[in-house]
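User: I'm writing a short methods note and want a consistent example. For 3-dehydroquinate synthase, I'll paste the sequence; you return only the structure tokens, no commentary, since I'll be parsing the reply automatically.
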Amino acid sequence: MKFAWLMAPDTYWDEKKAFITAALESGIDHIVDTSDAERIKKLGSLTLISPEEEADIVLIGKDGEGDGTLELPETLDYSRDLEMAAELKSGGKEVAAYVEIRSKAHEELARKLGRIVDYLILVGEDWKIIPLENIIADLQEEDVKLVAAVADADEARVALETLEHGTDGVLIEPVDISQIKAIAELLEEIESETYELKSATVTRVEPLGSGDRVCVDTCSMMDVGEGMLVGSYSQGLFLVHSESLESEYVASRPFRVNAGPVQAYVMIPGGRTKYLSELETGDEVLIVDRNGRSRTAVVGRVKIEKRPLMLVEAEYEGVKVRTLLQNAETIRLVNDRGEPVSVSELSEGDKVLVYFEDSARHFGMAITETIIEK
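Assistant:
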């Protein structure tokens, strides 16, 4: 998973605090700083990267630590940086090394440190793609996360996408708070999973008896066209619409998806699924829109109640899938035009959006296996 850290600006405390607060509000909770550890820790639950040995992640190579890799001439012996990194690691510390790439000597230092430390921060005044490509390629088999220092979202995109894999993260060195929010939005875009939704033909709609159905209340607001991928079969999940529409019967609940009975699958981040009955407060689920774009939401609560159910069966290219939903006017799927359609109005021949996959599932993970679901 790609991530972002913030380099706290070297300025007076109130301005530094504003930058850190903006980062925390944008979901960036790793802060690099060399001077205000105690005050920063009071701002919230965060991870501090600092030269202090009491830091969550110990930083070497900046502001006097090690041989000061920011100032390395090409001929300087940098063995002390390597020794310090090894000593800290042997003492059970997480270590981040900060290296400015100004020459081949710095590039070689980065490679060597990358075989020791947990995080390798790569800094360049004028980033050249080739050194970054070289280091990514050389360290791709090592257990180190590469972090590129960037000033804005354009630089962040280059770093995160270089050599397809890109760096694992970016270190934001902003001059304006808006740059923090722009990079946070970029990360959300890059991490977003896209699901190819197919237009399946409804072949059966049948009221059933009662069962325990699950409402998933998230900590996010959903728009029209958004919902969750839910289904009784792992090979085909229906896009069940959120309760973001007004109804003559109930007020809208744009944070909620009335998802189906307890045994149904729901898609969660990482291409995995969970049973609806397994969801609980604090879990993450995927919100998916009519175009298959997704975003992550935190579950605020799960509400299970006994309600009358309805079976919906649909077919795409000879493959039939089914799901069960509450039999109510306010429960909706999404049709082939991207519009919400109530299950009470569904009939054979209608088209609804379904996500199909070839893999079976084992404990929620997609695997290559023959499986029959009825």
